[in-house]
Amino acid sequence: MTYTIKQVAEKTHLSIYTLRFYDKQGLLPFVSRDQSGYRAFTDGDLLLLHTLSCLKNTGMKISDIRQYMTLVMQGPASIPQRQQLLRTHRDAVLAQQRAIARNLQEVDRKLSLYDSPIATDLVGLELAAARKEKTANGLPDPFSKLI
Amino acid sequence: MTYTIKQVAEKTHLSIYTLRFYDKQGLLPFVSRDQSGYRAFTDGDLLLLHTLSCLKNTGMKISDIRQYMTLVMQGPASIPQRQQLLRTHRDAVLAQQRAIARNLQEVDRKLSLYDSPIATDLVGLELAAARKEKTANGLPDPFSKLI
DNA sequence: ATAAACCCTAGACCATGCTCTAGGGCAACC
DNA sequence: GGTTGCCCTAGAGCATGGTCTAGGGTTTAT
């Protein structure tokens, strides 16, 4: 049992364009062609495609995915390099997740400010201070450009 | 006290290019110009720039940041719209974080497979099965292209 | 045997987010 | 008054990751 590119696109929710693009980028070295030159995806290929999606969805760059898939093609001997690649990626993703969480905290702070019953007053004070700072420095007041 | 674009670049770790690009994109409507047409950043501007960085670092698109900054320029009256924008963004970021965590779990599964003492055997079996699947379907074996 | 519905490649095109270059003005020091 | 070191704009260029078009072959059903 093999699958056409259309069937794989439906299964993976990747577009046919994207699948062909990935192939062109060397991300699908495991996919064979039939007599007509058509890509024939096996179930094993779908598993590798799933791995590819996980790497892509965690933000791995195409060049790194290509490297990983190349290592996969080389069999068990490449396990150490695969480990290193995945571990490096994993660490980068976790660091990025932490950075995003930190930055999102600040967004949350803004949101709780806006949720305050005196939000209007606080924001009004902030605005007044900003305008004052501008004029104190002999600068035009950008907040009145809206008039 | 105001800051030049160079000083702001140093403080924020954004490049001068990026700051000018952001300004061109309408992300810095609050920054005034001095008599020479030079950007003059105030301390209040730096706070807004910090907010901008948080939004950018959590992946908000430039068009949405522009919208937020435009709302900020309008003063307290725009608080409801700001809330909606930030909440939508916050929810999207959290959903994205969860999606990444899910995908990273699969990467971790791969890593623990590679960590297994019988990793070589398991990977070897997988490879053998994949090759068998290809030939069973009358397809060329892509794993021998390396010879 | 011809239409419909697939498949292919090469390469153009696009969106996003910068990054850099060219050409020119301002400001301070020697 | 020239050199240095900033500042400016407009617009070109680039990296990434697709997305689409043109031109052409294959398969299946009628």
Automatic annotation (TrEMBL), chains A, B:
It comes from the Bacteria. Keywords: DNA-binding. This is Transcription regulator. Residues 2-71 form the HTH merR-type domain. The keyword DNA-binding applies. One of its GO terms (molecular function) is DNA binding. Pfam families: MerR_1 (PF13411). It comes from Levilactobacillus paucivorans. CDD domains: HTH_YyaN (cd01109). The keyword Plastid does not apply. InterPro entries: DNA-bd_dom_put_sf, MerR-type_HTH_dom, MerR_fam.
